[in-house]
Here is the input.
Amino acid sequence: MSFSTLVNDLNYRPRPNSNTTATTNRTDTRSQVSRARSYASTAATSVSISGDISSQLHGGYSHPLARTWQAERQLTKSMLIYPLFITDNPDEMTSIPSLPNQCRMGLNKLVPFLTPLVEKGLKSVILFGVPLDPTVKDALGTAADDPQGPVIAGIRLLRRAFPQLFISCDVCLCEYTTHGHCGILHEDGSLNNTLSVDRVSDVAMAYAEAGAHCVAPSDMNDGRIRAIKLKLIEAGIAHRVLLMSYSAKFSGCLYGPFRDAAGSCPSFGDRKCYQLPPGGRGLARRAMHRDIAEGADIIMVKPATQYLDIISDAKEIGKDMPVAAYHVSGEYAMIHAAAQAGVFDLKTMAFEATEGILRAGATIIVSYFTPQFLDWLET
Ligand SMILES: NCc1[nH]cc(CCC(=O)O)c1CC(=O)O
Ligand SMILES: [Zn+2]
Ligand SMILES: [Zn+2]
Here is the structure.
């Protein structure tokens, strides 16, 4: 029984002099207050004192600090992971039209680009390799773990240049395969799961051995988490490498700008056979349970704002582990486009979207807004 039904049951009525009826706003005149009192005692005789008290919420958010106290968790710089697109042309620095303010860059540009961000409090990046030379692509994605390739060279470079920086690597084949799919294919064009898992886990191992703090397979082949975890254990490096699974990765139209950036658009078909259907909440839950059982250290939901219920499921299913959300390229581009069109203020929306993701349960957020949050946030 709630307090309010309890006082109603006891037939409780506010005492005539109690100051709990209607409003106690200081600017009200006495006559307004007494009119409100008489309204409360005649028209609404069942109004209970508890109802009136619980209607007084504004005090909790009239001051900016009190407003921040209403959030379970505050957004901080350490929650943010910044995606970096590293190309095989060392001097490259090219902006990506569909992904405003983001660049593809070569190894020589990486340290100068990151230095001011690290000074402002950047804690973590996730690396994506982008081979610009189409001749390195093949059916097996051989270039993904090329020791001279942009990701492995990038890991080594960043470990040396920024010893405190946490380095994650996206693990997938789509940037490196001629067909642009996230694995190795059967003759009929469908994914060969066995061969794909073997190849993806080799690539993850190569990144881990090069010094990545975290490997994050985004390929979605069944069983890849177990395969990677076993290889990490076998190699004796599982104690220093975090395994972040893109567990609940939905297929939709929000990855377009990323595919422009990474040159990873499938040459035929789509990714619907290995990414989740947008309505597939149950499948997402099963995938998260499965990945946790296979040894994931972090589960991720992607995209984020269209899938806040899935993030909250992730928090429940993975209650003893960190939950990540990827605020993907299409979500970022939409916010930019709408701000450009005068629909809303960019910064306000960036906070609102990100705080929604946080509220749903994620405490790690992969975001293209990271450089701006470093300016906007104090800690
Ligand atoms: N598999 C590669 C990968 N890793 C992250 C993204 C999307 C990230 C974004 O849109 O920002 C993709 C693209 C895809 O699966 O098509
Ligand atoms: Zn992929
Ligand atoms: Zn299939």
Notes: The pocket of zinc ion (ligand 3) is lined by residues 190-191, 273 (CB under 6 Å).
